[in-house]
Design a protein that fits this description.
single chain, Leucine-rich repeat-containing N-terminal plant-type domain-containing protein, about 260 residues, repeat, binds 2-acetamido-2-deoxy-beta-D-glucopyranose, 7-stranded mixed beta sheet, LRR_dom_sf, alpha/beta
Length: about 260
């Protein structure tokens, strides 16, 4: 009897532990998104369906999951949101699309976004983000679209971004970035449009040499071209005479 009840309570305990663990595990991503919600002003209530008591965030509006109920998209462009991002976004390990463009978001871009190694598109353009572009974004080896334009980002462009070989679209224009624009790796593709209207970028693609570096492709030193010999009249006439004589002689032989 006693043994049986010990076994029963052990099984019940085990079950509770498993359920609890499963519950906690299943909600890592929901909790991460809910911390984002808690940090934002949402005047249009676009995050109203973000209920943290649900098993996972897959039924929330503006969130898309894969077949394993893991978040692959967050689509919140043009949603009138303000506030700052949270580092917990770095926990969405299968996230491919983070679309937060055209809002009123401010503060820094969390360096934890560099943990989102499955990210294909990071669209933070047309917001009020400030501070540097995190060096960690260079770890996003699957990234194809990186649009950070029209913010107040400052500091240098991290060299680490040239490591992202999949990068197809880069827009860093209309910020307050300074220093050299890398031109190696993936950056060999990008034109001045990607970097336009910043505080003080320099390097070949900007048309502005970096301080202390030699000007790019210096023009060859100017060499006075040698004067072209203008034939004088006498020599022309003499040559003409010779030619006419040659023609006359051959005509005479012929006749
Ligand atoms: C992201 O990765 C860094 C370095 O590995 C780690 O310190 C940080 O806690 C991670 N962030 C998140 C949100 O997991
Ligand atoms: C944008 O956010 C700032 C605070 O970061 C706030 O003062 C301002 O009212 C917001 N503007 C709009 C249009 O939501
Ligand atoms: C981005 O910023 C530039 C310069 O302030 C501005 O001319 C342009 O209209 C902005 N882009 C959009 C889509 O608002
Ligand atoms: C580029 O990636 C390689 C390999 O991961 C790393 O060793 C190197 O430091 C990276 N370069 C930059 C500029 O981050």
């Amino acid at each position: 009897m006693v043994g049986e009840s010990v076994t029963t309570s052990f099984v019940v305990c085990l079950l509770i532990t498993v359920l609890l663990f499963h519950h906690v595990y299943a909600n890592v991503e929901g909790d991460a998104l809910h911390s984002l919600r808690a940090n934002l002003e949402d005047p249009n209530s676009v995050l109203q369906s973000w209920d943290p008591t649900l098993v996972n965030p897959c039924t929330w509006f503006h969130v898309t999951c894969n077949n394993d109920n893991s978040v692959i998209r967050v689509d919140l462009g043009n949603a009138a949101l303000s506030g700052t991002l949270v580092p917990q976004l770095g926990l969405l390990k299968n996230l491919q699309y983070l679309e937060l463009y055209s809002n009123n978001l401010s503060g820094p871009i969390p360096s934890d976004l560099g943990n989102l190694t499955n990210l294909v598109s990071l669209d933070l353009y047309l917001n009020g983000f400030s501070g540097p572009i995190p060096d960690t974004l260079g770890k996003l080896s699957k990234l194809r679209f990186l649009r950070l334009n029209n913010n107040s980002l400052d500091g240098p462009i991290p060299m680490s971004l040239t490591n992202i070989t999949s990068l197809q679209v880069l827009d860093l224009s209309n910020n307050r970035l300074t220093g050299p624009v890398p031109d190696s790796g993936s950056f060999s593709l990008f034109t001045p449009i990607s970097f336009a209207n910043n505080l003080a970028l320099c390097g070949p693609v900007t048309g502005r040499p970096c301080p202390g570096s030699p000007p790019f492709s210096p023009p060859p030193p100017f060499v006075q071209p040698p004067p072209i010999a203008t034939p004088d009249c006498t020599s022309v006439l003499q040559n003409l005479k010779k030619i006419l004589k040659l023609i006359w002689d051959s005509l005479k032989d012929f006749l």
